Amino acid sequence: CTIFNNVEQLPPDALFGIKQRLSQDPRPVKVDLGIGAYRDDSGKPWVLPSVREAEEVIRQDPGYNHEYLGISGLTALIQGAAKVLFGEDSAALAEGRVVSTQSLSGTGALHVAARFISKFCGDKVVYLSDPTWANHNAIFETMGLKTATYPYWDAASKSLNLEGYLEAIKTAPKGSVFVLHACAHNPTGLDPDQSQWTSILDAIIEREHIVLFDSAYQGFASGDLDRDAFAVRLGLQKLADVSPVIVCQSFAKNVGMYGERAGCFHLVLPRQDASVDTSAIKSAVLSQLNKITRSELSNPPAYGAKIVATVLNTPRLTEQWHKDMVTMSSRIIKMRHALRDHLAKLNTPGNWDHIVNQTGMFSYTGLRPEMVKRLEEEHAVYLVSSGRASIAGLNSGNVEYVAKAINEVVT
Ligand code: PMP
């Protein structure tokens, strides 16, 4: 058969390639700072206590089963998810302006967004931060959308290039799509502060762009759901009378449900004139979302959705979940400090304060590709070549070792 002559071998995915090399590395001491998944202080995956309890509740329910969900997913998940992100007092929810569907985690929500945009406004350019999560490019480009970048990270100062960012908003074709990381920007760990968010959103409104919030780390960054939802809530407030807002929500990190693929896609409609039938628009949008889901998944996965819904809708478990997020975020913050302090003690050339100032899972260390290569080859410390390190891979048993390895490749 000749069709395979055209099937070109692609290089391995950068992140999953690291995982593979690491698993084949025979050295006894190795450190995984590659993939963004939380580890406890002994380097093990952590099942959140709130999740363990929710699983018990689900199994003991006399109605326990593995039936299909509806096409748009589990209502208890979707409603709980919207409330947690938009806030109990959200005007958009109170005014019935939100259309939601369950998705295959955050990636699936982004894919639904890309499909929706390509079908109904495919001429729009999708602006991504420079740098961004590598999969953003792939997800939008696979749907045939044109992507462009807006400046974000200033390498020299290791801070936000706000001027460049605002300039890109101003010069982008009117009505473009801007993908904004809601919090804990991946890969830089650098978020705009509250006044910078105001400037960014005001500039976006000025140019009539459409905002797409990617919320993959709510509560995981600071340990506080409300604090991490600041940008999304400010955006909804500012855009309420202006334009729709797309929100892609993942429960992979904040509920530790990486492999269960629990997430939601939300489209928040702006307020309409009294002459417009909002419920007809909502119904039409939902029918289109359902068409996408039906042809791709038939219906979304149930087990993770039930767990997250149980955590979100059982006050005792919600309270435990809040504690779990504090456990995760504070261990990561502690490791940021430990790494910075060890580097300072070693007199490693350069300033390493950015490691403690950054937030969320990752640190954009500033290590250059050749240093990252040497870390892997000489010290079995694995991270992506951009210098992004997953701080969750550090623990009290390996942080000093990692600092010494960094010191060695930098000096
Ligand atoms: N957006 C960003 C910025 C991310 O970092 C991630 C996870 N790495 C996701 C979306 C989606 O993750 P998932 O599909 O596992 O929910």
TrEMBL record:
Keywords assigned: Aminotransferase, Pyridoxal phosphate, Transferase
GO terms (BP aspect): aspartate biosynthetic process
Any one annotated GO CC term: cytosol
GO molecular function: L-aspartate:2-oxoglutarate aminotransferase activity; pyridoxal phosphate binding
Reaction(s) the record says it catalyses: L-aspartate + 2-oxoglutarate = oxaloacetate + L-glutamate
UniProt-listed InterPro entries: Aminotransferase_I/II_large (IPR004839), Asp_trans (IPR000796), NHTrfase_class1_PyrdxlP-BS (IPR004838), PyrdxlP-dep_Trfase (IPR015424), PyrdxlP-dep_Trfase_major (IPR015421), PyrdxlP-dep_Trfase_small (IPR015422)
EC id: 2.6.1.1
Pfam family, one: Aminotran_1_2
Names of the cofactor(s): pyridoxal 5'-phosphate
Start and end residues of each Aminotransferase class I/classII large domain: 30-406
Ranges in a coiled coil: none
NCBIfam families assigned to the protein according to its UniProt record, in alphabetical order: PRK09257.1
Family: Belongs to the class-I pyridoxal-phosphate-dependent aminotransferase family.
Further comment found in the protein's record: In eukaryotes there are cytoplasmic, mitochondrial and chloroplastic isozymes.
PANTHER family, alphabetized: ASPARTATE AMINOTRANSFERASE, GLUTAMATE OXALOACETATE TRANSAMINASE 1, ISOFORM B
Subunit structure: Homodimer.
Protein name, entry field: Aspartate aminotransferase
Organism: Lachancea thermotolerans (strain ATCC 56472 / CBS 6340 / NRRL Y-8284) (Yeast)
